[in-house]
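Batch manifest, entry 17 of 40.
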Amino acid sequence: MGLRETLLDHQKESLKAKDSVRLSVLRLLLSQVKNREIEKGKGSTLTDEEIIETISSMTRKMDESIQGFTAGGRIDLADKERAEQAILREYLPEPLSEAAIDALVAEGIAATGAAGPKAMGALMQWLSPRTKGRADNRIVSQKVKAALEKS
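Output type: structure tokens
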């Protein structure tokens, strides 16, 4: 069963359980997925990876909202956003640890022969499919930059 089917099943379960928060989040997510399918073209369906990209994008936007609400003193709205974000994160793959990211960066340097800051683009291109949906690109980029400065 694909991720889309899982989301639809969980939406039905949330409806039956009268879990309004989860139901609302899943409806919003499925709406975003449908919009991306429409953008993609007639008769297209998103792959699990594309759905994960959509979820990642939504959680990043929620991070920004949480920061804004917190800065504005609206802790109640920030807490609501955190609760919704936690539901979305359940559908993301297990995030990579700092050590795992470091190991991937080292593996990427060995595989691509990257040396010096000019090789950052090639190394990021190698790393991107391996970290997609599992690590924040900003953190990966910082680690790549630090590793290439040492070499």
